[in-house]
Amino acid sequence: MSRAKSTLEQWRIVQAVVDFGGYAQAAEKLNKSQSSLNHAVAKLQHQLGINLLEVKGRKAYLTEQGEVLLRRSRHLTQSVEELEQLASNLGQGWEPNLIIARELIYPMETLVQALNAFLPQSRGTRVTIIDSVITGTHELINNKHVDIAICTTPPKGHICEPLCEAKFELVCHPDHPLAQVGDIEDDKQLAQHLQIVIKDTATNTPNDIGWLKAEQRWTVSNFHEAKTILASNIGFCWIPNFVVQQELANKQLVRLHLRGSSQRKIIMNLLVPDRDNQGPASKLLESLILQQHNER
């Protein structure tokens, strides 16, 4: 393996000379002598066999070759700084990765607002968001595969913090036979028609969301797929109101009136599966998620 001809320190000096407008200014900012900077740049140019800078008057200017190499050097020094910061974070117990389980009925926009507040303080922590449904979320929690979970009813043995209320609408296309009915007497009348349900993400004993035991059902992975089917005048579906607000307003979908259950409400909760081993990044993000709802 061949050894590098240049050092990170040499490239940092070249960057400083360019950024601060000359050797004298860079020497003052770096608290080094001007002669040492001159020597470092001259040695780098000799090692590379190429001129990076040329001095005109009291100011140093990049050559064409120097401009290309300086741009690449900034990526290099930034990567090293990030690597050193990561090492420091790990030494302090700061997590390099966080995994969040989000029930599909929790608005992604609300979670993004918390993540946006987290980003400037994240120290480079990578975030993975897993969309989950019903017992699939419980599996992730029980197996401690996630750091934070936003779920409905928590699995046994776990405590949680209430966040908000998820509201479901019973909807179909305006031309669907059910839309022509005034009040639907009971779910048995609904069960005579095709129902669109959302697939449980559990690997064992799945329990599809909103299923009324209709003889005919189509199962999809998310509510956006369900809306596409509903827009074709096929079936009915229980769906979160934030997902269909626009379609209802534009009368592309209509609400169905089921006697005694025209709307359903579910409490969404924030849960940390392994509170004893929760790290500082997870604690910070947890507090920011809670803050989003405390401010509403």
TrEMBL record:
| PANTHER family linked to this entry | HTH-TYPE TRANSCRIPTIONAL REGULATOR, TRANSCRIPTIONAL REGULATOR-RELATED
Report the domain of life of the source organism: Bacteria
Report which residue ranges the record marks as coiled coil.
none
* Similarity section: Belongs to the LysR transcriptional regulatory family.
Start and end residues of each HTH lysR-type domain: 7-63
InterPro entries given in the database record = LysR_HTH_N (IPR000847), LysR_subst-bd (IPR005119), WH-like_DNA-bd_sf (IPR036388), WH_DNA-bd_sf (IPR036390)
Q: Which species is listed as the source?
A: Shewanella metallivivens
Name used for this protein in its record: LysR family transcriptional regulator
* Keywords of this entry: DNA-binding, Transcription, Transcription regulation
